[in-house]
Design a protein that fits this description.
By secondary structure, this protein is an all-alpha fold. It is 69% helix and 0% strand.
Length: 331
């Protein structure tokens, strides 16, 4: 199994493993406490083992709020204020928020207030997509706010991208196809290696008989995950459908249409909030521009730019794009 495959498997929630590690953590913690809930100094090593298990629980299933609660609790017992802060920063990344927002809480005592901050964040922004959707259905304000702020969030974190993809699927299942398409493009623009989201978006376009758009999405999915042969399967379906009805074979979108598609995704690749107070430099050297984007951490934007350049026949662009994909898969 490659490093990217391992990363993918770890970032996709595995409930059973998360539950197992959380249960193990709770057992270790209980061994370290007396009947009044106080730490027995001679047994602090059990807390350390409990922390390790709690970390594994979050790693294997970041969508279960109980795993986060157990981790913060054990860090509180260890007196690890910085550790609690780090957990909250990680949660903020999963929720698409800027970890820098915690700077507003610099004077907060995380040992006494960290758990409450965690609970408040989880209640306001549930990790379970079904719980989130129930909340959205009960309050139109929740859904309206979500539709408005998604383009402003930082969803480059693999877990955040997956979480928001699943939320957007709930919107799709409710029948709002246009919002599903709009939000899916925003999510994919920030993490173009999310082949599952590309496939889901392609299926929506295919169902709507928007075949060129469907092919473009399936193409991205198969490029990012070659064993996912959705593009080839789609082409076969199209050719089979036209067989006997037309003497012309179905043709995939031309270079101009592909370039236009990639340019639009490139423009969407950086969250609106990250453009604030940034002056755009114009360069005539596209390779240098890609290098500058990479140095600034704008990997998604660089990814789509190099894909577009490769489609236009720019020498060396495809190789750079492949390196970017590997880098993003490992992030």
């Amino acid at each position: 199994m490659s490093d990217s495959d391992i990363a993918d498997s770890l970032q996709h929630p595995r409930k059973s493993l998360g539950d197992r590690h959380r249960s193990q953590s709770q057992k270790y913690v209980n061994l370290a406490l007396d009947e009044n809930g106080h730490v027995i100094q001679e047994r602090t090593v059990n807390l350390e083992w409990g922390e390790q298990s709690a970390r594994q629980a979050v790693l294997h299933d970041f969508t279960n709020p109980e795993n986060w609660k157990v981790l913060v609790r054990v860090k509180s017992l260890l007196g690890d204020s910085e550790g609690i802060r780090s957990v909250l920063e990680d949660l903020f990344s999963v929720l698409g928020r800027k970890p820098e927002q915690l700077r507003q809480l610099e004077h907060i005592d995380f040992l006494s207030s960290g758990y409450d901050l965690l609970i408040a964040s989880l209640e306001a922004d549930p990790l379970d997509p079904d719980v989130w959707w129930e909340m959205a259905c009960e309050s139109q304000d929740v859904l309206t706010e979500f539709l408005d702020r998604t383009s402003k969030l930082d969803l480059r974190d693999r877990r955040a991208n997956l979480l928001f993809s699943r939320r957007v699927e709930r919107i799709r299942d409710s029948g709002d196809e246009d919002q599903f398409i709009r939000l899916s493009k925003i999510i994919l623009a920030q993490r173009p290696t999310n082949h599952e989201a590309w496939t889901s978006l392609g299926r929506m376009h295919e169902r709507r008989k928007e075949y060129s758009d469907a092919w473009l999405c399936y193409d991205q999915a198969q490029i990012c995950f070659p064993s996912n042969t959705v593009r080839d399967e789609f082409k076969s379906r199209m050719e089979a459908e036209l067989d006997g009805k037309s003497k012309r074979k179905w043709k995939s979108p031309g270079i101009e249409q592909r370039v236009d598609f990639l340019r639009k995704m490139e423009d969407m690749a950086t969250p609106i909030s990250l453009y604030e107070n940034v002056e755009e430099d114009i360069t005539e050297d596209p390779i240098r521009e890609v290098e500058e984007l990479v140095s600034e951490g704008k990997l998604s934007e660089a990814f789509f730019m190099t894909r577009r350049m490769a489609a236009q026949g720019v020498e060396g662009a495809l190789e750079i794009n492949q390196e970017l994909r590997k880098k993003m898969e490992g992030a």
